[in-house]
């Protein structure tokens, strides 16, 4: 049976493919706007870790690799999200506010915040080779200077995320850095003033519905210390701080998986309304965590020239096709797809003449 004719197949459709999805558009946050803030200070280029191939890799390379993977995941999942990539602690500046130390990367014909495209990913992957020449790295806050690139970067990101309502769009800032104390070289009132203004800028962004997430880049011999500054910027305390510190020591490759998992579209199956008592109920959404892979369209090619064959009408010949699924691990034929479920409550219908079934 064709998968499109399967009545159970509808639950695996994306929300933008569901004809009834328009009913939930105004109430659900379906889109996501993301600004990637990448620290481009010299420390990001000098600190190295071992990659999966056991080759030395700088923290700057790791950050760019994570972003590239997430952009590709968005295109694969037909996402309508919009992204922007900004570097701070740069020699050159390029942003709408014309602030020093911040360079917003985008295609010449595109906007600063736009949907990812194949060309954007291609140009972004080639950026690493030309970064030193065209953009350049610069130290962060220096003694005697009133410039604050981190403050400017959050301001630029907040301005990029100004479009779209916070009720219908999830807005996030992902910050990549290996500097746990951006104002460590300053002392006295100047350090206190810069710390206060930067934290206030971050709070202003959060008050507008923008989430700031930190992706700390630690070295094997130097652990990222949140307590120096970023614990106040991202607002961690108590158990959240303890768990965050534990996860911060994991390998940086885990960040790639975390970014990729966040890009998958939620697929709503049904809405449930559990009535507890009269006038009190709980409404829940159920989502399909597993979906079948639909084969792409078939293009018939000539066996000699490898050119596409033209369509022709066949009246006396009926062509039938069969499809078989083979397990990649065992090589055995897969007869039927696995069905998964989670029991809510076991009911003894034989011994209970009046079972109490939740109202759904």
UniProtKB/TrEMBL annotation:
Molecular functions (GO terms)? double-stranded DNA binding; helicase activity; telomeric DNA binding
Q: Which GO terms describe its cellular component?
A: Ku70:Ku80 complex
Query: Which keywords appear in this protein's UniProt record, sorted alphabetically?
Result: ATP-binding, Helicase, Hydrolase, Nucleotide-binding
Q: InterPro entries attached here?
A: Ku_N, vWFA_dom_sf
The UniProt record lists the keyword Lipid biosynthesis: no
Name the segments for region: Disordered. Answer: 1-26
Q: Matching SUPFAM superfamilies, A to Z?
A: vWA-like (SSF53300)
Name recorded for this polypeptide: ATP-dependent DNA helicase II subunit 1, variant 3
What species does this protein belong to?
A: Pisum sativum (Garden pea)
């Amino acid at each position: 049976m064709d998968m499109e004719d399967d009545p159970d197949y509808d639950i695996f459709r994306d929300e933008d493919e569901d004809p009834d999805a328009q009913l939930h558009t105004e109430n659900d946050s379906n889109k996501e706007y993301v600004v990637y803030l990448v620290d481009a200070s010299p420390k990001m280029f000098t600190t190295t870790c071992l990659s999966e191939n056991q080759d030395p890799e700088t923290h700057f390379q790791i950050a760019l690799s994570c972003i590239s993977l997430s952009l590709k995941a968005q295109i694969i999942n037909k996402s309508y999200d919009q992204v922007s990539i900004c570097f701070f602690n740069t020699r050159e500046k390029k942003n709408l506010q014309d602030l020093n130390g911040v360079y917003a990367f985008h295609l010449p014909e595109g906007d600063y915040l736009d949907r990812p495209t194949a060309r954007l990913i291609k140009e972004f992957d080639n950026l690493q080779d030309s970064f030193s020449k065209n953009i350049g790295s610069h130290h962060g806050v220096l003694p005697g200077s009133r410039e604050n690139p981190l403050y400017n970067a959050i301001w630029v990101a907040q301005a990029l995320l100004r479009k779209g309502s916070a009720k219908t769009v999830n807005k996030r800032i992902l910050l990549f850095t290996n500097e746990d104390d951006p104002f460590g070289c300053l002392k006295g009132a100047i350090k206190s003033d810069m710390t206060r203004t930067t934290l206030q800028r971050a709070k202003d962004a959060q008050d507008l519905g923008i989430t700031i997430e930190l992706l700390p880049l630690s070295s094997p011999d130097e652990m990222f210390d949140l307590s120096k500054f970023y614990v106040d910027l991202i607002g961690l305390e108590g158990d959240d701080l303890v768990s965050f510190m534990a996860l911060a020591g994991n390998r940086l490759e885990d960040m790639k998986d975390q970014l990729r998992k966040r890009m998958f579209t939620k697929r709503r199956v049904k809405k449930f309304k559990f009535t507890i008592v009269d006038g009190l109920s709980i409404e829940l959404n159920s989502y399909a965590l597993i979906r079948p892979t639909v084969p792409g369209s078939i293009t018939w090619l000539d066996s000699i020239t490898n050119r596409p064959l033209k369509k022709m009408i066949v009246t006396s010949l009926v062509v039938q096709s069969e499809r078989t699924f083979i397990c990649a691990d065992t090589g055995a034929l897969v007869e039927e797809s696995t069905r998964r479920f989670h029991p809510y409550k076991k009911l003894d219908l034989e011994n209970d003449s009046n079972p109490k079934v939740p109202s759904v």
